[in-house]
Amino acid sequence: MPSSLTVSLGGYTIVFALAAFILILITFGIFIFRQIQRTRLNSLRREISLTIAPDVSKKVRAQIMANIENVSALRNSLFPRFTDCNMISEHANQPYVQRMIGFDEIISGIDRQLEKIHPNLARRPGQSTYAYLLHIRSIGNFNDLSDHFIERISLLHEICRFRPTVPFGDAELEEVRSLLAEFAKILTRHQELLDAAVSSQAIDEPRGPRSRAKRVGSNISLSNLAADIVPLLTVKSHK
């Protein structure tokens, strides 16, 4: 009896049993690998929470938000300005001091205010004020920013920067301040709508290497468009 059992378990039987065992191991390994990949893909597809530090306590989150506000305040304080005390004292009697003040107030009243609403509203490198405001109007989908308003504030900004031969005095500076006050009222009325529109775009935006390359290409095309769509702004004299 023992000899017959040895014969039945020897030879090809052992080879087939070993092959079956290896096949089971390979099948089990493939199954585990597929489960790991499926779990990883599901975690990538999961909606990303935009809440800052959602898993911490309210006290810790408040501290994090305070630190973020401090960083933002530090960034704004370190932003180069033409109208700090030293610059004004050096150029107070120069005819271009109004241009310096106007340039700083436009940046502070438009760019900085929009960045406070949402970081994605920051001006792109090389983007003109005209193209920038058109872009903001299209995002917020509000018509309070008329074409005349955009063209006028863009012209005054252009005069401050690039047209030293065009007069820019106290009257033009007061007009800049009046336009900026109107712009602040428009932002106050549409702040929540603008923030919601930008946040929804950030959620719907695809992620990954291809999407990043696509965004870079779109930014380049928009920068080129910004240089092309700027109209020939005309100077209106004040009587």
Automatic annotation (TrEMBL):
Keyword Hydrolase listed: no
Superkingdom of the source species: Eukaryota
Q: Name one GO cellular component term.
A: membrane
| Keyword presence, Transit peptide | no
Assign the protein's first listed, main location to one coarse class: Golgi
| Bilayer topology | Single-pass membrane protein
The UniProt keywords, alphabetically, are: Golgi apparatus, Membrane, Mitochondrion, Transmembrane, Transmembrane helix
One Pfam family from the UniProt entry? NICE-3
Transmembrane residues, as ranges? 12-33
Q: Where in the cell is it found?
A: Golgi apparatus; Membrane; Mitochondrion
Function according to Swiss-Prot or TrEMBL:
General regulator of phagocytosis. Required to uptake Gram negative bacterium by macrophages.
UniProt name for this protein: PXA domain-containing protein
Its lineage reads: Eukaryota, Metazoa, Ecdysozoa, Nematoda, Chromadorea
